[in-house]
Amino acid sequence: MIKVYGSVQCPYCMVLKENLDRNQITYVFVEVLENLGNLSAFLAIRDREPVFDHLKAVNDIGLPALVDENGKVWTDWESWLRENNYEIFIAEASVGQACSLDRKGC
After folding, report:
1. Residue 29 Cα to chain centre, angstroms
2. Contacts 24+ apart (CB under 8 A), 15-21
3. How far apart are alpha carbons 37 and 90 in whole angstroms?
4. C-alpha 23, offset from chain centre
5. For residue 20, is pLDDT > 70?
6. In angstroms, rounded to a whole number, what is the distance separating the alpha carbons of residues 44 and 24?
7. Taking residues 7-22, what's their average pLDDT?
8. Three-class SS of residue 104?
9. Is 12 helix (H, G, I), strand (E, B) or coil?
10. What are the structural domains of the chain?
11. What is the pLDDT of residue 37?
12. In what order do the strands lie in the sheet with 65-67?
């Protein structure tokens, strides 16, 4: 089963959840702002996975982050959907608000 690290306060995370739900994909959503354990689990992944290097360099949080059944971490969930032959119902680019002050995303 895949795991998604995100927050209900992040519009991109909600778009990912909507796409997973509409594709009837079973997943666990880890709300990183719910408690320190969830935040710590996400930060441990963020600190060790190279996929976050560019995001950290531009001061991006890196949410949502999708971890597949093999442990591979994805920050580009649209690519994960395409690679697994799922439909993209709502594209991330269609989201009108951003999580960061510079409007570059979550």
Report:
1. 10
2. 15/90, 15/91, 15/92, 15/94, 15/95, 16/64, 16/66, 16/77, 16/92, 18/89, 18/90, 19/77, 19/81, 19/86, 19/88, 19/89, 19/90
3. 30
4. 16
5. yes
6. 28
7. 95
8. coil
9. helix
10. 2-94 (3.40.30.10)
11. 98
12. 27-31, 2-6, 65-67, 73-74
Per residue in 34-92, pLDDT (tens digit) is 999 999 999 999 999 999 999 999 999 999 999 999 999 999 999 999 999 999 988 76
Alpha-carbon span 3 to 26, nearest angstrom: 9
The pLDDT of residue 101: 46
SS3 28: strand
Residue with tokens 């995001």: 55
Q: Provide the sign of the torsion angle of the four alpha carbons 67, 18, 54, 82, taken in this order.
A: positive
Q: Note the pLDDT of residue 16.
A: 96
